[in-house]
Known about the structure:
Elements: H1 2-21, E1 26-27, H2 29-39, H3 41-56, H4 59-62, E2 67-83, E3 92-113, H5 117-183, H6 189-223, E4 234-235, H7 248-258, H8 260-280, E5 286-300, E6 307-320, H9 328-394, H10 400-434
Parallel strand pairs: 1-4
Antiparallel strand pairs: 2-3, 3-5, 5-6
Amino acid sequence: MNRYRIFVLLTTLALLMLSLAEAAIPVNLQQLVDKGLQQNYQLRIARNEQQIADNNAIPGNAGLLPTLDLNSNLGGTVYNNAQYPADGTAAVLTPGVNTSSLSAAVNLNWTLFDGFNIQANYSRLKELQQAGALQTRMKLEKYVADLSAAYYDLVQQTIRINNLKSAVRLSKERLRIVEARYNIGNLSRLDLQQARVDFNTDSSRLIRHQEVLHSVKIKLNQLVAEDNVELDVEPADTAIDVNIRLDKNQLWASSLQNNTYLKLAESEKSVKMLELQSARSSNYPYLKVNAGYGFYENRYEFAPNRMQNNLGLNYGLTLGYNIFDGFNRSRKQKNARIQLNNQELALEQLTLSLKSDFSNLWMAYHNNLGLKALEQENLAHARENYAIAIERYKLGELSGIELREAQNSLLDAEERLVQASYNTKLCEISLLEISGELLSSKL
């Protein structure tokens, strides 16, 4: 009896801890999403990578703008000079002859035309900028989907905890009835022991499930980049509400138009087309202009003129055409066409894969909606069945084993309903993600 009372005391303390945990301030999914969008490390890295793509998409990086350089130079030589006259007279030796030069100039170089290669490069940089934005959006969608799944998992586990607490209360009530009857000699010790075993089993199951709930909270805190990963999180939702009005045709049309993976593949196809255009630019001539303005000074220790200065402008135009480059021009263009064709094939493959995933998700969503409705009906029957069973048990018309079966049936019905609701919600989240409507939808 002492051991039993100790166990009851420990169970009561565990239930008290759960009650205290429920005192935490509840948060809804939107609050967690807003927090996670600001703090999540992967999203912050993705935004930085997008910023790099934005910084690269400028005309100067593509070569559309000229380059302007300022340079200066100071140099000289020191040497021994020897002159030998043609008439055979003695050589004239001049040791330590010193010459020096000084220059400062501004030089401009600008490629005016190179077969549209510059324009293709600039368009490619802009396309890569758009691809960077799509990469960020794709990570945002995945993050919101993962966070939503984790939040509704928390709702699911909280419902399970409440169901298990309810089972403990029912077992405790049954134990109270059995103890009263046992004390007046109306039931055997076997019935009392069985009631204690069932109560202990339910209490143990409740305590074990606390670990599952704790892990879910840890995962949720990690997703929102909460420094205190053990921060108690309570869901504002007490049930998993699912959208039963999703339209298959509308979602599929939206998937073909807004799916991020498809948009990214189309952007990559555009990049390949621009790379082909860039490869074809070598079929054209090129035109470059250069100009400079500078000061040049030379000093001579042994020369007719001791110093010479130049100050002025220089300019020039270069028109050229590569006649033969070892067939590399043809090779690059052929490879660019093959890469473009591969990207077109990859886009078609992705569309087919998307269609398959959508079909499977829709079937799972539709089936789970049916299961959810069926389990709601089963739960109503299980509750009514248990209510009848407990009344008959109190009147002595039902055995403890039969009451336990009714209780287990109730707990199983509750478990199946919450599982069906959670699975349906996951399908809903995935369908919204695949259709590109997740970020604009209210979950």
